[in-house]
Amino acid sequence: MIKILIADDHPVVRKGLKEIIEDIPDMVVSGEASNGQEALEKARKGDFDIAVLDISMPGISGLDILKQLKDEKPELSVLVLSMYPEEQYAVRVLRAGASGYLTKESAPEELIAAIRKASKGGKYISSSLAEKLAFDLETGAGRPLHETLSDREYQVMRMIASGKTGKEIGVELFLSAKTISTYRSRILEKMKMKSSAELTHYALKHGLVE
């Protein structure tokens, strides 16, 4: 029996995932969490084979939870299920140790196939993402500028590009406005840009924000 922990802050999403999984004879949802901290606590105490984790939950970011889980329970496979398109987070979460990345628009069969593959220690990558990774290798394409950013810098960059002020970002991430300002300077330097407007243009062009 594959024992699954579902971590998502939307009760409707958790209920939907549970209904899909409970139709499969060799799978069971044996734990649920509505935020990052709860996901970590349940994973520490419970005996799970797989965690299905939303990337954007209140409190600790999904990427931070993923890294902590892989650090504390390396044997636990983590599938990331997100509302964000693949190009925004897939490569980043796979690098951080996830066993796969699925968007919430994925078909139920795809979720089950991903759980099954991850439970055997494999990595689940959609055909479109596999194609992109193969193309990048084949063309020897250099890493895009946003891939040079740390996970926190990337998070701040996306928030700046979506029009949030330094103060709003600070409140959301529990950081001071001064810290956000430091991040902004570092992001601009790494991406060889001079203004937030340039960041916004770049993020829109590369599909990093809606």
Automatic annotation (TrEMBL):
Provide the protein name: DNA-binding response regulator
Q: Where is the HTH luxR-type domain?
A: 142-207
Please give one Pfam family short name.
Response_reg
* A Gene Ontology molecular function term of the record: DNA binding
Q: Which GO terms describe its biological process?
A: phosphorelay signal transduction system; regulation of DNA-templated transcription
Name the UniProt key words of this record, in alphabetical order: DNA-binding, Phosphoprotein, Transcription, Transcription regulation
Species of origin: marine sediment metagenome
Q: Name the SUPFAM superfamilies for this protein.
A: C-terminal effector domain of the bipartite response regulators, CheY-like
Q: Which residues form the Response regulatory domain?
A: 3-119
Q: Which InterPro entries match?
A: CheY-like_superfamily (IPR011006), NreC/VraR/RcsB-like_REC (IPR058245), Sig_transdc_resp-reg_C-effctor (IPR016032), Sig_transdc_resp-reg_receiver (IPR001789), Tscrpt_reg_LuxR_C (IPR000792), WalR-like (IPR039420)
